[in-house]
Specification:
By secondary structure, this protein is of the alpha+beta class. Helices cover 16% and strands 45% of the residues. The chain has helices spanning 77-89, 145-154, 164-167, and strands at 7-12, 16-21, 24-29, 34-42, 45-53, 58-62, 65-68, 91-103, 112-123, 136-141, 158-159. Strands 4, 5, 6, 7, 8, 9, 10 and 11 form an 8-stranded mixed beta sheet that branches. Strands 1-2-3 form a 3-stranded antiparallel beta sheet, with no helix packed on it. The protein is globular and about 55 Å long. The relative contact order is 0.20.
Amino acid sequence: MSEEDIEEIIWQGKFVTAKRKGKWEYVSRSRGIKAAVILAVEDGHVILVEQYRVPLGRNCVELPAGLIGDETEGEDPLEAAGRELEEETGYRAAKLESLGEYYSSPGMVSESFTLVRASDLTKVGDGGGTDGENITVHRVALSELKQFLERKRAENIGVDVRLLLLLGSQLI
């Protein structure tokens, strides 16, 4: 086995592990934890969340998301997505469908997430998250999304890259 094939753990925390393999340094989720990202689009509107993100030092607008199996080992991705959607947004989905596994930033992070489409939504609570997450829920018309994100940027709010999938050809 060459030095290029050896994976070295530089540092490990409860949720994140910094690694080196050959000349590459990257980050992975600890304990094999993955994430679910929820695409909740219905009646021409999308459900988004805004919350403070420590690495950015500011709020960020995102699709609802959460960890799979961080508290219950072997948790089903769709079950986790439904739980996170309700905790963060107050919406419950009658139907959850996996749209596949994707990678966040494959040059730096090995983390993957399952993209889940949520439909047949019912508002069952206020959302806002748990444990002091302090999440603000936004229900945004898709036809107004570009302007909404421009306003958020003007307020110095970050925008998660996954929102590009909703902007699509509006950027071309």
